[in-house]
Write a structure and sequence with these properties.
Elements lengths: L3 E7 L16 E2 L2 E2 H10 L6 E6 L4 H7 L8 E4 L4 H11 L7 E6 L7 H12 L3 E7 L4 E5 L2 E6 L5 E10 H10 L9 H7 L4 E5 L10 H15 L11 E16 L2 E4 L2 E4 L2 E3 L7 H14 L4 H4 L13 H13 L3 E10 L9 H12 L6 E6 L5 H4 L3 E13 L3
Parallel strand pairs: 1-4, 1-6, 4-5, 7-11, 16-17
Antiparallel strand pairs: 2-3, 6-10, 7-10, 8-9, 12-15, 12-18, 13-14, 16-18
Family: In the N-terminal section; belongs to the IspD/TarI cytidylyltransferase family. IspD subfamily. In the C-terminal section; belongs to the IspF family.
Protein name: Bifunctional enzyme IspD/IspF
Cofactor: a divalent metal cation
């Protein structure tokens, strides 16, 4: 599998906009709505690929109005209904087979990156989730413009996109439905196949451009951005940080070593106050370094008896939670183990899965490598194991 892909549904005709030109190709200032949507998703660090579902008649339009993305995204043709178009997109990704798929309307170009991130997080946890905003206006049921009754708005939400799913769940759900025309969104298709859908709160900025009035509002937003009158709220601005960690433990008598959360049979074990997991220790230090919050010894001093024999995954969980507590996210981690023995290769996939589970991120954002020191130094003499780690995180901007 290959990370997170976005399916941008852009095969509709958009007749309510009052034009023969499909609305996704209307320009807001000098950029088409579809190009703005593609730009937004292409700039999200956790989106690994984009597939655009276009109408068979719109090849030339797409090439002209989204020329900067023509060589950067995949395209396929849509069907007679929206859900058929989504199914075509899912089938076009069969060979790529992403972990997570985000299905999104082309006419929602202003989706907040935090919403996308939270949806991906839900999908990575094996759950389906949609962006939605709570209903805040009073609701009335009427006939012939006469109010019949009030409708309780508690628990009511405006469904939006993106809608996030583990790929296999939403593909199988679409294939299981004989008449997709009965369903207005992908969440309904998944629900019809017995899947629960959670909600990620989104805002009014994630509106769908549908009417001429929407087009005017969207044009004003784009113009304000271009003239720098529009500024993203500081709480939504993110900055990237990178931290480095290093750790080493010597061998002592034993029958296994614990590396990156996995017990590996060996003729020795690593000596340490805790379980001496040199990989997790280095990575914990890398994350804490990116946070500028000291190192593992600061928070878990070896002089403290409560950490004697402790599993090192709790140290990494602590570092992970410190990132989350500051409204940040872990983008990528990379651990290099330096040793002659034991062999890391046969255990690498299990280590990646273990670390991804601890950090609550996709396995395709976890790298574990191994090397030797060519028989040089203490690792070459098989006296111990060293580890280096790099962690990339994002935190709300403080500038």
């Amino acid at each position: 599998m290959s990370g997170t892909w976005a399916i941008i549904v852009a095969a509709g005709r958009g007749s309510r906009i009052g034009s023969d030109l499909p609305k996704q190709y209307h320009r807001l200032s000098d950029t088409s709505i579809l190009a703005l949507t593609l730009d937004n998703f292409s700039k999200h660090p956790c989106v690994d690929g984009i597939l655009v579902v276009i109408h068979a008649d719109d090849e030339e339009l797409f090439q002209r109005e989204c020329s900067e993305f023509a060589d950067k995204v995949l395209t396929t043709h849509g069907g007679a209904t929206r859900q058929e178009s989504v199914l075509n997109g899912l089938l076009a990704l069969e060979s790529t087979r992403p972990d997570i798929v985000l299905v999104h309307d082309a006419a929602r170009p202003f989706t907040n990156h935090d919403v996308i991130t939270n949806l991906i997080h839900a999908g990575t946890s094996g759950k389906a989730a949609i962006a939605a905003s709570p209903v805040v206006d009073s609701l009335k049921q009427a006939a012939d413009n006469i109010i019949l009754k009030n409708v309780d708005r508690n628990g009511l939400w405006h469904a939006q996109t993106p809608q996030a799913f583990p790929f296999d769940i939403i593909r199988n759900a679409h294939l299981a439905i004989k008449d997709l025309s009965k369903y207005t969104d992908d969440a309904a298709v998944a629900e019809a196949n017995g899947h629960q859908i959670s909600i990620v709160t989104s805002g009014k900025e994630n509106f769908k451009i549908t009417t001429p009035e929407d087009l005017v509002q969207a044009t004003m937003i784009v113009n304000n951005r271009q003239t720098k009158e529009y500024k993203m709220p500081k709480e939504h601005q993110m900055e990237s940080r990178t931290g480095f960690g290093y750790d080493v433990h010597c061998f002592e008598e034993g029958d296994h070593v614990t590396l990156c959360g996995v017990d590996i049979p060996h003729t020795k074990k690593l000596k340490g106050h805790s379980d001496a997991d040199v990989g997790l220790h280095a990575l914990t230090d890398a994350i804490l370094g990116a946070l500028c919050e000291g190192d593992i010894g600061t928070h878990f001093p070896p002089s403290d008896p409560q950490w004697k024999g402790a599993l090192s995954d709790q140290f990494l969980i602590f570092a992970r939670d410190r990132v989350l507590a500051r409204q940040g996210k872990i983008i990528h981690v990379d651990v290099t183990l330096v040793c002659e023995q034991p062999k890391i290769g046969p255990n690498r996939e299990l280590m990646v899965a273990k670390m991804a589970n601890i950090l609550d991120i996709s396995p395709n954002r976890v790298s574990i490598k191994a090397t030797t020191s060519e028989k040089l130094g203490f690792t070459g003499r098989e006296e111990g194991i060293a580890a280096q780690a790099v962690a990339t995180i994002q935190l709300p901007s403080t500038d």
